[in-house]
Fold this sequence. Notes:
The protein is an alpha/beta fold. It is built from 13 helices and 9 strands.
Amino acid sequence: MGISRLSALELAVVEDGRAATEVLSSTAVVAGKLEELGYHRIWIAEHHGSPAIATASPPVLAAHLAAVTSAIRIGSGGVMVPNHAPLAIAEQFATLSALHPGRIDLGVGRGPGTFDEKIVRALRRGADPTTDDEYRADVAELLRHLAGETGIRVLPGEVPTPEPWLLCSSAAGALLAAELGLPIAAAHHIRPQDTAEVLETYRGNFKPSQWLEKPYVILCVETICADTDEEAEYVAGPCKVIKSYLLDGEGGDLAVPTPEQAAAHEFAPETAEILGRFAAAQAHGGPEKVVRSLETLAAATGADELMLTTPVYDAGARARSYELVAKSL
């Protein structure tokens, strides 16, 4: 099948020696470029306490990106429900939707958004990690707030409802989305080995709802495109190094190295093999190779939309990757 829609998931990767002030300003420039290129939506991921990622507050950054663009859909990919009261999430995104009618997506997920247990407990005001039942209850409560079914006024008057989505990296998440009748964003960029099971579970159990009549799938794919395969390998280097640290058990509190530093990094053979298998399941390379990978994934999964996440060191390289893909399809 062809690729009818392209979207982007932004992480606001912090470059060595730069502060969030500069990085978030660059992210706004990238958002403008995505709109110019005809991308359908841009989402912001929630991450906390990281020296490498500056997206601690998706609703605040989404408000800024919506203000500096005019047509592209803006949303979260996602807000981590265990970190917030469902009513607070509903109020934040209803406010965004009132300010930018018809443009706001509310993607939610379960992950903590950090590797730091101290931050997890601080976000949850000392509470233990959420259980499966608590997560399901919180998502259901959030949807009831959005639908005006809780008896609590989210905002005065008639306000356009933000479009709810569920982020899924497992069959359990896919089943919840299916039962609630929500569209999903499948985390192929995190757990590609589980994508087939996620989509089969979702489509096989989907129940129409007030939110959606039939299944709708965004497939999120790590996409790193440059003018040549060799250049793409070079700009992908910093991300590979960070992943190698995680695989080797060194935690997630490490800064992103420069491409030059990454090029000099020596990977353990078993780590290099794992990283190679992961990259082969994504879309890395020059335009021809990337487009071929994306079209193959779209055909294999039947995805309705592809969301590209491009965790490269420089915002200019990220924008260039988005441009090469859009102009090559």
